[in-house]
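Risk register update: the risk of archive-format incompatibility is retired. Evidence:
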Amino acid sequence: MSDDTNGPTQHEGEPHEGALGNRLNRLRAAVLGANDGVVSTAGLVVGVAGATDARGTLLTAGLAGLLAGSMSMAAGEYVSVSTQRDSEQAALALERRELATAPQAELDELTALLEGKGLTGDLAREVAEQLTEHDALRAHAEVELGIDPDELTSPWQAAGASFLAFTAGSLLPLLAIVLPPPYVRLPVTVVAVLAALVLCGWGSARMGDAPPGRAMLRNAAGGALAMAVTYGAGSLLGAAGV
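Archived output:
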C-alpha cells in the first residue's frame, strides 16, 4: 500500500531488482548443475549397463561418477566464484582510493554516468551529490561497476550449491539403473532421464524468458545422444571382453 504523503513504498517481501537477480542466478545455477548431474551419471551408468547387468558394478560406477562429478563441479565453481570475488574486491578497493584522492573527479564521473542513463545535467548532478553524501562507495559500485558491496558472491555457497545440485541430478539415473529388475533397468533409466531433462530444459527456459519447447527438445536430444553413444561403447567393450 502506498503512502500519499511520502510517496510509494516497496511492498514488504516483494522481490526487487538486486535480490531478484541474485535469486534467479542461483536458481539457474541449480537447474544447470542438476542437469549436468543427470546427463553425466546417466551416460556413465548406461554405458556400463551396455557391458554388464551386475547391480554391484552399476552401483559402484554410478557412485564413483556421482562423487567425482559433484566434487569437480564444486571445485570448479569455487575457483570461478573466488576469481570473480577477487576481481570485485579489487575494483572496490580502487574506487575507495579514487574517492579518497580525487573526490571531485569521482563526483564528475558519477554525474556523467547518470547523464548517460537519461537524466538531465542538473538532475544528474543533484542525484550524484546526494548519492555521494549518503554512501559514495556504494553509489560508484552500483552505478559504475554494477556491484552491490554487501552482496558479493560467496565461493563456499556457490561450491556447496553446485555440489548439492549435481548430486541431486545424479541420484535419479543411479537409482533408476540399480533399483528395477535387470530386464527393465535400461528402459526405466532412459525414460526417467529424458523426463528429468525435459523438466530441466523447461525450468532453464522459463527462468531465461525463452520459449520452452526448443530448450526441452534440445536438452532431451542431448541426453539421448549421450546415452546412446555410451551404451554403444559399453556394448562393444563388453562384447570384446574388455
